[in-house]
Amino acid sequence: MSFAAIDAWWWPYLFILLAGWLATDCWRYLGVYLGDRLSEDADILVFIRAVATALVAAVIANLIIFPAGALAATPLALRIAAAIASFLAYLAAGKRVFVGILAGEAALLGGIFLFG
């Protein structure tokens, strides 16, 4: 069975739904099943957290350095400054993610209005 196997308007949506569900939910169920058996300090979980954190950092860096859409029209220095302001606000607010997001957005929009 492939993406082009059925020529119906609903098939691409069903294919994406099933492929997305099968690719993610099996790991979720396995995590729930094994979750009670592993300690939070287990080496494998520390490794998995480190890999997940590195992947998120890589996606953020990719969005800052190689943006798409309207963000691509902003200078690189502004995007980096907004990311730094966001991180500093996150730390200053006691590691509140929402505050960091708002500070980053404010810095980016302020820079666009001042320099753009």
From TrEMBL:
It comes from Nitratireductor arenosus. This is AzlD domain-containing protein. Pfam families: AzlD. Keywords: Membrane, Transmembrane, Transmembrane helix. The chain crosses the membrane at residues 12-34, 46-66, 72-90, 97-115. The keyword Membrane applies.
